[in-house]
Amino acid sequence: MDATLDDVEFLVSSTHRVGVLDALTRGPCDRDELRTATGASSPTMGRILTDFQNRHWIERDGRTYRLTGLGEFVADQFEEFVDAMAYQRRLREVWP
Description:
70% helix; 96 residues; 3 strands; Arc Repressor Mutant, subunit A; mainly alpha
């Protein structure tokens, strides 16, 4: 379970990582498009892309990056988790 929590922490501890994942769910992007979408510096973007490739969440095709099947799975599950957490926040107000 520690490795799983490490992956969760890796993703959620950076708004830039979340932004890259989100941008790539809309389609392939090059590095400049990802930097514009996230506001990340060039060195930060390089680290994110390398880390995502090492996790097999993205693949590079020339100058373009796209989600792999595993990356799509991660993005879908993360989106569901974020939605669930937003919903539980609303429930706090009415939960007995």
